[in-house]
Amino acid sequence: MAIGKITERVDAITGISDERRIAAPPCPRSVKIELTARCNFNCSFCATGYKLRDKRDMDWNFYLKLLKELKAAGVEEVGMFYLGESFILPWLPEAIQAAKDTGFEYVFLTTNGSLSTPERVEACMVAGLDSLKFSLNYADEEQFKSIALVKGSMFYDMVDNIKAAHAIREKGGFDCGLYGSYIDYDGQQGEHMKSMVDELEPFLDEVYALPLYSQADLVSVDEKKRGWEIRGGNPGRAGKMRPAMPCWSLFTEARVSYEGHLSACCFDHDGRFRMGNLNDMSFMDAWTSAGFQALRQAHLNGDVSDTVCKDCVSYA
């Protein structure tokens, strides 16, 4: 197996090339698809638990249509997630298979790990999953209960599932990368995570840290009360953070919500960042829509004070 570094892929997406530093950039290489908005965690650093919109699943026929359109437009990679936990879906393996059958060379997925049972992971690997990343945002059961706000036994489910995923990959010879990331909430989380990372590193190809995002300024109040350090925009990973402006997420990667809206933001929990309804318009028409171009130009000009990004960027 030739498993590459996920950090190299992350850095390639979070870096804005010169050809993309325009209001109407070329088709993005990567698109995240929200197969479901539902999640079984209620993490304090995430606005999912605020229930700012309905939490449902993507229509299967729309999904198949979307895959064909994205492929025809030139998209190379698709993520089987956005703001929800995709392992909730019984048809996740079928969604991965459909993406591979459509011709996407790289299909990736991030999960909280609690529902990624050996049977489900094997089915996803058989379907052709290329990358599975686990969000390791908790150093131990106590921190898990405090942050994820669910029963502590699910922490051990996550750990067991990670180890099982590695065994499944090795036994089946699947060409699927296994990765982990954790949020450095306060600058000391890396030290807190050391025991957890040491235990899981033998089962993962790479583990890396992420800064704590303001999530479009939706959860910053709770984060401040905990004394956590907040970053504006989406600066990428902790080892190679990008500027808040221009925010790479507007230029290099797209996200489609379960309802079919193209979003400009990685954290569009309330629909503020919708740039086009793909039920009514094409993907590229939405990607180069007047509203999206105006938002990108504001970022390029270094002044988003009159845009939906103003509160988020203020943390930079």
Give a written overview of the molecule.
With 316 residues, the chain is an alpha/beta fold. It has helices at 6-14, 60-73, 92-102, 118-127, 141-148, 153-172, 189-192, 194-200, 220-225, 283-287, 290-301, 310-313, and strands at residues 30-33, 77-79, 106-111, 131-135, 177-183, 206-210, 253-256, 261-263, 274-277. A 9-stranded mixed β-sheet has the order 6-5-4-3-2-1-7-8-9, with helices on both faces. Strand 3, helix 4 and strand 4 form a beta-alpha-beta unit. Helix 3 packs parallel to helix 4 (118-127) and helix 4 crosses helix 6 (153-172). The longest helix is centred in the middle third of the chain and has 20 residues, at 153-172. The protein is globular. The relative contact order is 0.16. The mean pLDDT is 91.
Strand order in the sheet with the most strands:
6-5-4-3-2-1-7-8-9
Mass-distribution shape = globular
Radius of gyration: 19 Å
Briefly note the structural class of the backbone.
alpha/beta
Average pLDDT level: 91
Largest sheet: 9 strands, mixed
Number of strands: 9
Return residue spans where pLDDT drops below 50 for at least 5 consecutive residues.
none
Helix content: 25-40%
Spatial gap, N to C terminus: 40 Å
The DSSP helix count reads 12
One letter per element, helices H and strands E, the order comes to HEHEHEHEHHEHHEHEEEHHH
User: Into which percentage range does the β-strand content fall?
Assistant: 5-15%
